[in-house]
Amino acid sequence: MTDAPAAPAPRPRSQSRAIWDQFRTHKGALFGLIVLCLLVLFVVIGPLVWQPEKLRVAEALKVRNLGPSWRFPLGTDQLGRDMLYRMMQAGKVSLAVGFIAMMIAIVVGTTIGVLAGYFRRLDGPLMRLTDMFLALPLVPLLLVLVMLFRDRIAGYLGPEMGAFVLIVFAIGITSWMQAARIVRGEVLALREREYVLAARSIGAAPRRIIFRHILPNVISPVMVAATLGVAEAIITESVLSFLGLGFPPDFPTWGRLLNDGLQYMQLYPERMLWPGLAISLTVLAVNYIGDGLRDALDPRIRGR
Amino acid sequence: MKLKTALLGAAAMAMTAPAAWAERGADGEVKLTFPQAVSILNPYLTDGTKDVLAAGFVIEPLASYDAEGNRVARLVTELPTVENGGISADLTSITWKLIPGLLWSDGTPVTAADVAFTAQYCMDPAGGCAQSAKFANIASVEAVDDLTAKVTFKGPQSNPFVAFVGGQTPILQKAQFEACLGAAAPTCTDQNSGPIGTGPFRVTGFTVNDTVQMEANPNYRDPAKPAFAKATIKGGGDAESSARAVMETGEFDYAWNTQIPPDSQAAMTAAGKGQFVVAFGTLVERIETNLTDPSPDLPEGERSTAKHPHPILTDVNVRLALSKAIDRNTLVEVGYGAGGQPTCNLVPAPAMFASDNTECLTQDLEGAKKLLEDTGWVDSDGDGIRDKDGKKLSLLYQTTVNPIRQDFQTLIKSWWNEIGVEVELKAIDPGVFFGGDAGSPDTFQKFYADVEMYANNFSGTDPEAYLAEHACDQAPSPENQWQGPNINRFCDPAYDALLKELTAATDPAKRAEIAIKLNDMLTKDSKVIIPLVHRGTLSAHSNALGGVAINAWDNEITNIADWYRVK
User: Could you give the ipTM of this predicted complex?
Assistant: First the structure.
């Protein structure tokens, strides 16, 4: 026996601490979180650290199609632009589009799902609305949206900000349906549970029941839907840019860089490799984080 | 005696030596690859260049154009002219005399009745003939005798060489197509996929949208040709892979339409197995300026119409400065490589119609700045953008989605920024841009932008109709459902008057002079149109293939009979 002091009574753990502890045990999720943080740092801090020399057109054309070097760590493209800097700029847009569009989709989807699940009268109309959106062909709808509103929004916000707002909105508004259905299903089951019944019997208002008792319990499926949504939003943005309906052509996004690199695949494969790698890493990282979060947020799994 | 025998022997050797390599069918098989597969072999039922090109191996017109744009006789003894009586003095008829003894590939003689029948076939209103425009001015085609066909027009024609000249209007065999007139035309599958012709090859097998197999025509008029016994055209793939199949793997001898980036061109040429060839026709990549105001603040129906002149582009100095700031050599180097050359002309070819206008070929950024400075366009509020009377030099620059065009946009934007012009870029799906839908705001005719970039050309060798597109009354507007070809809304009475002169002129030298003047009015003098690159069609052929003379004025391959294997 040692004379070590008796272990102090375990301090009660806060909920967020418990979630983090559980999250940490998921190696993939932890790794995903690190990769995502690095990517975010790369696009946010990167341009502050790495300032490429400002070249005039004539000078830039002399350094076309270069391989990696100290001057251009990722080489240059067919017009002599620094690929590293373009990757940073493009990443900023792609990540922003992915996350903001996902947030819109989740907010809209969760709201509709909760309303439909909790209030019986709203269930029919809201779910038919969801079905209608699901039945709409996504790309043509986006094309029409962009075609109709691009010029108008660009008039208020300028071409780049206008395109950003429109694309984020268009993607968000067309990808909330999965979340809505999942949430509705969960809510339908939850609202019959005893503790909800108890809350109702002591006269809690629906708003309070929803926020206090229902929403925390639907977070895990929502998280999974959200992570998948990020990946999908980044890819949808690439599709729009590819069709010429996304951002102006000189405004880089990862999807556009990938598309630009396509015709040089044989000669300069790295030009497709970097944006492709960035998109894949983001999607993979976000998916793993979602996986870890689901486990961490589920009280039944947590602590096992 | 001995000497005589020896001499005779030597002479005989000399005679047979060239004949030995010029024997029909001695060189085996020639293989071609087209990125777009052939779907029909009757040019009267298709608009596809690939189909017309493949059909040209089998069926021939009376006359065609050579690589320089000159007309040459093919199935006739000589080209009709007014002097030799082939064209009537009042220009209302043209008479073609067939070569005597000419045979179809099935051994029957070619007669003037076949020519008359071909016209009847295409002019049948129920037939949906794709080339009917070429027969539009014809009143009748009759067979005067077995070898003489007379084409009578509805009125005087300054250019009577339209029907039966060039690969789009070859002669069909009456006996074969007799049952295919009118509505029956598309249903004659056997005939449409295996026409009997006078060309150097005849069809032996045709898989629609895949492969055409041909063998040398035993009745071809030159007994020594073609040098190849078989020809195969394989369709499918893309420009890159077809070029590779010729230039690197050597699977094919010839690849049609292989427009690939200059870097890839250089890498493939370096492999040493083949070479790229370019046919420079009349295709010019250009920037069109909008002389009317496209501002979205104007009510719909008045945007981009003559009611509202453009606030800045109506100033000729702005247009001149925009043109001066562009380095066309760099554009060619970045975008087209061997497939393009810098140009300052709207009509870059044929040589007799091309203006000697080269002032724009050297970039002059300082000159552009000075010009703007001198004419009052200065940066008065210090934001880096020039302005005058409260109007900013700010442009919306649109084009189609296409990697080369996006590179061009980026480069030109940087040059224009350097001279103090603000540029916003826009890229539109080509299907929409060229779609001509009057309801869409993004068509090139509607032109809801300040400048736009695309390529256009004219068919044949005479630019009259092409230049006439810029007459005042040709401007697209809501009244004509935005269908006019005068994209700039250019309107100059002097131009219209000169056009009338061109229509009236018949002397070729005079016509060329007027056409050059018209070209200069649009480009050199006013820069209403800012030409950038004269584009060719790029094809690739193996170094083992000889006799290739790529042609921009007719089918790209008009001399397949002269091709041979380099040994």
Answer: 0.72
Residues of B with CB under 8 A from a CB of A: 240, 260-261, 263-264, 267, 296, 327, 330, 333-334, 400-401, 403, 406-407, 409-411, 413-415, 418, 424-429, 440-442, 448
Structure tokens at B106: 């099935």
User: Considering the domain boundaries, does residue B306 fall inside one?
Assistant: yes
Measured between alpha carbons, how far is B220 from B229 in angstroms, rounded to an integer? 12
Contact B425 A248 (CB under 8 A): yes
Q: Residue B62 to residues A18, B65, B76, B420: CA-CA distances in angstroms?
A: 89, 11, 6, 56
The tens place of each residue's pLDDT in chain A, 304 residues long, gives: 455 555 555 666 677 888 888 888 888 889 999 999 999 999 999 888 888 777 777 777 777 778 888 888 888 888 888 888 889 988 988 889 888 998 999 999 999 999 999 998 999 999 999 999 888 887 788 878 877 887 778 778 777 788 888 888 888 888 899 889 999 999 999 888 898 899 989 988 988 888 888 888 888 788 878 877 887 888 788 777 766 677 777 788 888 888 888 778 878 888 888 888 998 898 888 888 888 887 887 767 765 5
pTM given for the model: 0.77
Determine the Cα–Cα distance for residues B397 and B423; give it in Å rounded to an integer: 7
Please report which residue ranges of B295-425 form alpha helices under DSSP H. Answer: 316-324, 328-335, 365-374, 403-418
Supply the range of the domain harboring residue B466.
280-377+436-536
Which chain B residues are Cβ-neighbours of A57 within 8 angstroms?
327, 330, 411, 414-415, 418
Distance from CA of B455 to the nearest CA of A (A): 18
Ordered domains of chain A (ranges, CATH): 94-297 (1.10.3720.10)
Cα B441 off chain centre by: 28
